[in-house]
Amino acid sequence: xxxxxxxxxxxxxxxxxxxxxxxxxxxxxxxxxxxxxxxxxxxxxxxxxxxxxxxxxxxxxxxxxxxxxxxxxxxxxxxxxxxxxxxxxxxxxxxxxxxxxxxxxxxxxxxxxxxxxxxxxxxxxxxxxxxxxxxxxxxxxxxxxxxxxxxxxxxxxxxxxxxxxxxxxxxxxxxxxxxxxxxxxxxxxxxxxxxxxxxxxxxxxxxxxxxxxxxxxxxxxxxxxxxxxxxxxxxxxxxxxxxxxxxxxxxxxxxxxxxxxxxxxxxxxxxxxxxxxxxxxxxxxxxxxxxxxxxxxxxxxxxxxxxxxxxxxxxxxxxxxxxxxxxxxxxxxxxxxxxxxxxxxxxxxx
Amino acid sequence: xxxxxxxxxxxxxxxxxxxxxxxxxxxxxxxxxxxxxxxxxxxxxxxxxxxxxxxxxxxxxxxxxxxxxxxxxxxxxxxxxxxxxxxxxxxxxxxxxxxxxxxxxxxxxxxxxxxxxxxxxxxxxxxxxxxxxxxxxxxxxxxxxxxxxxxxxxxxxxxxxxxxxxxxxxxxxxxxxxxxxxxxxxxxxxxxxxxxxxxxxxxxxxxxxxxxxxxxxxxxxxxxxxxxxxxxxxxxxxxxxxxxxxxxxxxxxxxxxxxxxxxxxxxxxxxxxxxxxxxxxxxxxxxxxxxxxxxxxxxxxxxxxxxxxxxxxxxxxxxxxxxxxxxxxxxxxxxxxxxxxxxxxxxxxx
Amino acid sequence: xxxxxxxxxxxxxxxxxxxxxxxxxxxxxxxxxxxxxxxxxxxxxxxxxxxxxxxxxxxxxxxxxxxxxxxxxxxxxxxxxxxxxxxxxxxxxxxxxxxxxxxxxxxxxxxxxxxxxxxxxxxxxxxxxxxxxxxxxxxxxxxxxxxxxxxxxxxxxxxxxxxxxxxxxxxxxxxxxxxxxxxxxxxxxxxxxxxxxxxxxxxxxxxxxxxxxxxxxxxxxxxxxxxxxxxxxxxxxxxxxxxxxxxxxxxxxxxxxxxxxxxxxxxxxxxxxxxxxxxxxxxxxxxxxxxxxxxxxxxxxxxxxxxxxxxxxxxxxxxxxxxxxxxxxxxxxxxxxxxxxxxxxxxxxx
Amino acid sequence: xxxxxxxxxxxxxxxxxxxxxxxxxxxxxxxxxxxxxxxxxxxxxxxxxxxxxxxxxxxxxxxxxxxxxxxxxxxxxxxxxxxxxxxxxxxxxxxxxxxxxxxxxxxxxxxxxxxxxxxxxxxxxxxxxxxxxxxxxxxxxxxxxxxxxxxxxxxxxxxxxxxxxxxxxxxxxxxxxxxxxxxxxxxxxxxxxxxxxxxxxxxxxxxxxxxxxxxxxxxxxxxxxxxxxxxxxxxxxxxxxxxxxxxxxxxxxxxxxxxxxxxxxxxxxxxxxxxxxxxxxxxxxxxxxxxxxxxxxxxxxxxxxxxxxxxxxxxxxxxxxxxxxxxxxxxxxxxxxxxxxxxxxxxxxx
Lengths: 350, 350, 350, 350
Prior knowledge:
Four copies of one chain form a homotetramer.
Chain A: E1 2-7, H1 12-21, E2 27-33, H2 42-45, E3 56-57, E4 65-68, H3 74-84, E5 89-91, H4 101-108, E6 122-123, H5 126-134, E7 138-140, H6 144-159, E8 165-172, H7 187-190, E9 195-196, H8 204-216, E10 219-220, E11 224-225, E12 228-235, E13 242-249, H9 260-272, E14 279-281, E15 297-304, E16 309-316, H10 320-334
Parallel strand pairs in A: 1-2, 1-4, 2-3, 4-5, 5-7, 6-7, 8-12, 14-15
Antiparallel strand pairs in A: 8-13, 9-12, 10-11, 13-16, 15-16
């Protein structure tokens, strides 16, 4: 039985880790931290976690495995000594996602707290980076938006069938913005409304670009073509769920033309994900509700034959596949357990 | 491993049974029916149940245990031969809830299809009727509203501390009305709105009255006092969840007076439910979201000391504790399994 | 043209006053205040008020009529000098609602800032207190919950057909809690959920009791019977709207018995409100959405003939009939204008 | 006073016409039709329209102006004789939007019922086609999605600063799908969820393409470049509102490069719409709630400087600016009234 610690259990990602791990057969949460609520019983902070007999502590106790749900910067500072002392860590913050410390500084506004650990950190999109995840002590859990965009684009990007002019239009529930208070998540403001944000450049953009570049490799046609990604997140009045609609021109001549393109594309996607337990290629446009509360990502790839564009819709629960579930999947991979352990359950639908 | 059949898996209660049973360690769903969708794969009807490799059939195959999620009348007709042939059944419909066939005819508008089975049917509010549930082959699963009202009232009613003038004001999400199409569950109509219904007499009323009468026994003060219950259901724009606010005058002199009354009442409730895994007496008013997707009922009892009235608020998920979860709890009790098997999980919050 | 000032335009009630007054043919908003946003253009604070060319000021300019949407205590302090100098004021805060300064101190936690003005303040439920409203310079606009409860109860209470054992169970959208930030109005928490609050005694309770007492007069049967009101507010995931369900035993022998009671009751209600433009007695249970954005209160009275109880359901928009609309109706009455001026519009449905 | 008739008042667009026209100073609704509800009082069908003393009739009475909110095909059949007899008509259905009867047949699946009227029909996006609207008897009111997309794209398209590779990603509330019953607008399914639909080609696509082509004129660079539009609608759990996010590559060299591009673009948009009362170019991303219930379209244009793409976000209320409000604006223009008459009101926010 793995003794697990959760740093910052008092945010949504931390609480979701506790929720999911409660039914994990090989792991047990034994220590949880959270500065603002330290000293309270976990059941006081979160009535749905009354099944736990734990007190929120200021510092982690001795554990075998650590999840960090701390904010960026604070997370790297807390994770670094653990990793250096040999404790395996999944960091849900953004701190180890970007390979380049300079890019981190540009987007997150400060020196990286532990740049020496960047080379050994694995980007924890298990489906696309499994071997690196299995052989590291430090996994950078993907952002929720990148998770949805990358799973939608990977089969096409790796197959070289798209031109690297990509648009990712994402719609997210409010839990992605966290439990902190802000006017844009006040029900009176956000309810019965939809809005776009981050149009000047959202922090998840460089992460998407970095990973798409890796998937596509150099594109030469015949000169080098840069990868261009526009990413627009939107806030919709639901608690959980992200739907990303991804667009890219088809690379001329690489996918069957005409109406057959759709079937050929779906077949390519099915083949790509055929052994993945948490990605399902579906035959009709999915709804976020089909993944509510579980670790699935549903992907619907199609072709707009009028314009010869790839269009892929993906859905997932931003707190599960977009955060805590993916983190547990990574823990399973890192510790040699079956990846599905504790995560194999239907969505809570309707 | 118990082979389980679900009749009418294509409604919300039926689908919820399939969702919950997927992780039950001692039961496996092996046969599901549903007239309108017969012949389709379950995954086609419900993408969240793609984990099942089952086809919706017109008739049940051979199974060890049956849940019926059929509409009333049809349910009794389908359950009766099964029960007579010795198959244990939990009926989620209303058919075996009312002990009196005449009352059934009055409220449900037709002769009872199997009145001979009524005497052996147990009212499946496990917490209050455990012994009868354990020793029968036919359990009538409670209605979702009665479940929330009866768990809120039982400790006070059984202790004789209230006068039998009861008001139950309930607020329910739309899944309680089922998956059928109607204007009052159209998001354009029900969204951003709240309304009352059933004011002339909702079908769950006689069920509440019947069980409250049993709990209170004869009230003589000194002449016999009849049990009077007014029940008003309301539709609110959420998918899952019932909150019931229950009111009754305190029986003079039976509970500590003044501010101390609140603590005395809470102590009485805690004692009553101290061994129940699925009812928790809480210290502050609960939200339905605290029970989303799991089998808990949270009960908050208090006293309006200005008016000397009992006020109890209860919350539960109408599809779980109010339907499928309670049904599985009953199956566990009927088959000698621990009641919590397959049902011990935190709510999906937020 | 009346020059109108709004104190604290930056809350929901203040902004709603500005919204509604924009189309008032005899009034024009010429000055608005709001401490935290002073100096900003109104359009910056509220994009929907871009039709106004006004700057939020720290202090009111010279106006003919003032609405105060300030918090309690601050409101009385700001209104008192205006009233004393002869400016007519409608105060939307609670400061002048309770007739008794001691009761105010008990519920609002502080000395009343202007007790000398209490005797001349009129309780601004125009329908029930029209003459007083027309002849004062200071109107205390009712609370949103009391507005819904009192309009539901008035015809029965004044006719003496109920016993003064009243329960008011109210369901409100989140805008009633204001625009301030709090966890209980965070969409991630309040969305897809319902909860009760204020069970120990909500501040709107004494206001309801005070006015019900006036409506009922002394009840002697044959000894004096005290008025007992239990009031439970609930938070539901909508932005606007209150539905109140009110219960009281019928006074024996005063209303026709049996099924005929319902028609007799409805007739009594229709007669009571027959000349009121903003209260409509309806034949079937109303939804809050039927009053979204306008100044109507819909009232559905019925009798639970099984228990001989009055049950009345009322709906209104808490920001209009429950605040800004009622305030403008009061302004119209105070200034000799037709009460419906600027307020006669259909609800925004769906 | 114009006597107005509404055909099919019983759908959402028809009811919204009645709501908005109630406060129009120069028009009065005197006749309304609706097959399924014929014979009922309008107040029975829609409680929020109780202000009208009208009966739903099977056929229109004699009126001066007609709005048709009938379904396509039925609408053209009903409008044709009216137009031919000289009655001015605004048709909210799709029947006269596409200039080419063959294209109509392809997308709407049937012969056009009145192809002879197509040449005289004006596409009723008043802002872009004012002169034609003013001089015709038959206006085809735009679809709600095209309305939002075209107002977002027009300034850029007409200025020739974009390359005709356009993506329109739209998010709509459920009222756009009408009042008919379907599983995808059931609150239990659509609530707390988001999904894409119409990926194979939505009927609003040819309308967008047709009008974008007109706005851009022939693009030669130096060979002719076809206009390519991908349009993806999404269903989100709100009642009213559309947000469209539109993407197109900037035409090289035609807009200032670098960070200055954003200001230059906003200036271009402001200039384009400077005299339009119902389109406002805003400085920060708007929310649909800012236009709830009124006739405004808010447009936020920006440049993704990393990829040199235009990104424009527009919001409107699909039942007002996307249907009934735009229709009344057209009526005003057709009858020589000021366009804002009856439509100048703030949004109902929050």
